[in-house]
Amino acid sequence: MHVLGTLVGCHTVPVEVVSTARLYANRCSGVGRRVCFFEKGTGEMDVVNRKNKWKVILPEKQPGSDGNQQAEKQERVWTPNQELCRIAVFPDCYLRNTELFSSGPIVLRYGRHLGPNRGFGFEHIWKEHGGAYPDHDEAMEKVEARVREVIRPGAEIFYEAGSRAAIFSSIRGMAIVERKPDGNNASIYSVVTVYKPRKVNGSRVGAVE
Description:
Layout lengths: L1 E3 L2 E2 L2 E2 L3 E3 L4 E3 L9 E5 L5 E3 L6 E4 L16 E4 L5 E8 L2 E3 L2 E4 L2 E6 L2 E4 L2 E3 H9 L6 H15 L5 E4 L4 E5 L5 E8 L5 E9 L7 E5 L2
Parallel strand pairs: 13-19
Antiparallel strand pairs: 1-4, 2-3, 5-6, 6-7, 8-9, 10-13, 11-12, 14-15, 16-17, 16-20, 17-18, 18-19
C-alpha cells in the first residue's frame, strides 16, 4: 500500500491511497471524532473526519538513494498517554519523616483537554493557555519550552494533598504534576498544567533535581 499526502494537526490535506483494501485509523482512547479512510470504487480513499492529535507524516527519501526509492511511510497517532519528552527529575520527598513521593522522571505527555480546568498534558496546556499559537506543531514547541521554563533544577516543590504536587519557580510560574505508575513498580510525574498562580498552597517538600 502506498500513501501520498499528509494529515497534520487540525488541517487536512488530501491523501491518495492506492489500495483495494479498507483502511481504518481508529480514534485515540477517550472522546473525540474518528479519522477514517474509506474505499471508493476507484480504490482512492478520503479523509472523512479528523482531530488535531492525528498526524500522518510523508515518507522521506532515503540517504544515498537515486531519488526513486522512498522510506516506508510513517504514521504517528497521538494518544493521551504518549510521552512527548522528559523534563527533569522529581526527587524523593518527605513530610514529617513520611515518604510522600519516590524519585522519578517528570514527563510531558500529549494529554487531553476536557474543558476549562479539566485535562492534562500538552493538549490541555495548549487549549487552556496557548491561544496565541493556533498551529499544532508550533504549539508543541512553545508548550514544551514553557514547561521547561517553570520545571527547572532548583524549582521548589509544594504538597497539599493527593497524588499531585506543585512545582513553583518564582516569577516564571507554577506547574502541577501528578504521580502515575510506570508499569515497573516505579513512578513517573506527568505534567498536568502550567500557569501563573496568585499564591502557593501546601508545604514545601523538596526541589526539582
